[in-house]
Amino acid sequence: MKQPIERLYSQHTAIMKHSFIREILKVTKGVPGMISFAGGLPSPDSFPRELLARLFSQVILEEGADVLQYGASDGDRFFKQALKAFEEVPYLSDEEIMITVGSTNGIYYFTRTLIDPGDTIVCEAPGFPGSVTAMESCGARLAGIEMDELGMIPDQLRDTLRGLHDRKAAVKFIYVIPEFQNPSGRTMDLNRRREIIAIAAEFGIPILEDQPYRELRYSGERILTLWELARTEFDDPQLVTIAKSFSKILGPGLRLGFAAGPPEMIGPMVKWAQKTTVSPDCATQRVAARFIEAGHMRRHIDWIIDLYRPRRDAMLNALADCMPDGVTWTQPEGGMFVWVTLPPEINADDLFERAIQHKVAFIPGSKFYPAGIVRTNELRLNFSYSDEKLIREGVSRLAGLL
Amino acid sequence: MKQPIERLYSQHTAIMKHSFIREILKVTKGVPGMISFAGGLPSPDSFPRELLARLFSQVILEEGADVLQYGASDGDRFFKQALKAFEEVPYLSDEEIMITVGSTNGIYYFTRTLIDPGDTIVCEAPGFPGSVTAMESCGARLAGIEMDELGMIPDQLRDTLRGLHDRKAAVKFIYVIPEFQNPSGRTMDLNRRREIIAIAAEFGIPILEDQPYRELRYSGERILTLWELARTEFDDPQLVTIAKSFSKILGPGLRLGFAAGPPEMIGPMVKWAQKTTVSPDCATQRVAARFIEAGHMRRHIDWIIDLYRPRRDAMLNALADCMPDGVTWTQPEGGMFVWVTLPPEINADDLFERAIQHKVAFIPGSKFYPAGIVRTNELRLNFSYSDEKLIREGVSRLAGLL
Asked: Of the N and C termini of chain A, which has fewer Cβ atoms inside 10 Å?
């Protein structure tokens, strides 16, 4: 290698971006006294350690010959079975569901299945950078649709799809987080979901529904997923594929998620998985299966909700108590994030620099927009990681800087 | 979705092939009385269940707050540390090593880092289809180099590289399994390794060294890896990246492997991992770290060697005892496979159909060649999965069909 190896990089490798969020997390991690609302981390108190320790030991001793061996690329059959029962979709065939190495992994395979370089994905703006960079790494262009309090704005979605269609752009799918969205905390109501599905059906564009936070609802009524609506009300089972994660309800370190959708999508996604990871961790999958079968999951989720609800309330109350006039924020019914809008003259990227001097951290809103949309007066606050006392103190510090 | 979703598939998805080997394994799996030499499975007897059960329980109880949380995309720092000690490369920086979801995952990221559709990878013929399909899924073309008893033939490698260079093909890397190769069981000696490295250096083409079986040596002397040779004798640390697997020494269900190479390769590979899986299973990584730190790994490998050596010997002896004149086979010093060459008039694909009727299975050699090379009188036999008695009986059945 007399010549530098970089000359051999593929086109995507050569242009691959740094993750700004990872840089921010590095700056804020491990600083004594720092109150961080920056990450998207679940609280370590939410991990069911005793139960998992017991189940891992049991599964490996009793089922080790099976779970330490190579497993199916579409996932452990016991886990799929348990999952179908837990999700109350027992009628689903094994060809309509696959287990993934966390839900980003499913989003990656979905993208890999449909995207050629230059193809377009329509997404929310602001949106989740983890998914966006996974999509961009496959060569996708992102077209951002702005949001109101109920999520993606239907008229703007329709106009954008029409414009892309007229320009002969290859639009491959629509990506949404309809519940407690990351970063905005917003939730699409039932009508908004119907509107988005109707537009997708009209243009013949499938939807990827990302639902990492769905189980973490602290108030309001549970709403049918786009995936359920498309299958039932719209009688269109090909239209929506859903991705869910166990990161927020078991522990992200276990890297478990799943995707459910039509066999025409799940089939090729499994083939991509064969070539990329062969399969998720088989022992961990079986442990999750036994966890669900023993009835722990529902109880454990209720326990996490009881842990996080007071944290959300503490943050919303602290914002109401401390923030000056002209600052507004979303009222999330679940999930992990509140989205704050500052007066237009305040730049949240500048505020971030001052905030970390004062030992409070957040992610500036500008990091959540795709290229072409510039918004500098917003920020994302996480309320799942810190306890109520720290939340009140952190919001107070932040308000003091405005 | 009035129109079929298949119309939206990316180009690679549309042409993605079925795995013939997976089809074969399906046909042979669970058939009563079937003796299968087809798979590449470790014996379940080789899984250290008691130790793993204890360590999983311990790690999750004591370190759960850490290992159930999101972890670094390049891998758990304790596991990297333990691995460097075990591999006797304590001088390696953390930027030169990453943990992967099995070694195929590392091979995928290496390919993703370098390959644009249409680029060329030079590989052994016969070669490992799992890697080949991962490479083809990134759009790579494979140029197969034939092998003699010592692996890839240097003259043919040089001629092929020269020809590709003259045709202005973008050759991105050379892929080899230098030890107990899958499928042939062959091992490159030290001189052959030097020759291959010298040619790669001459053309400025990096090498991906796949070493899934390295720890499983039953006879002969351990040989320096290409990776070590390039760093030391050739003073060229950018030239070789090595991928290793824990599938054969701990259990493939745990999905653990690692890649070590220059930061210029490991860095972008980690970025691809961020977008594809975020990280490997963090609990499993920590368990593997504690397994190594406690000194179990070397003892456990010795135990597996004592399990597999008699199986290899049983297979080689049975072949010598049963096979008619004109049949030859390799003498693997380790690993899991023997490669059998039949008289030219015998078609191993036809033989396979008759063999499964007689309840013995193997993989026909034709499945291991890239497009352009047709060889129909070879077959691969696995000796790690069945015990000595079954091996003798299976080889005898097979010989009876010749």
From this structure: C
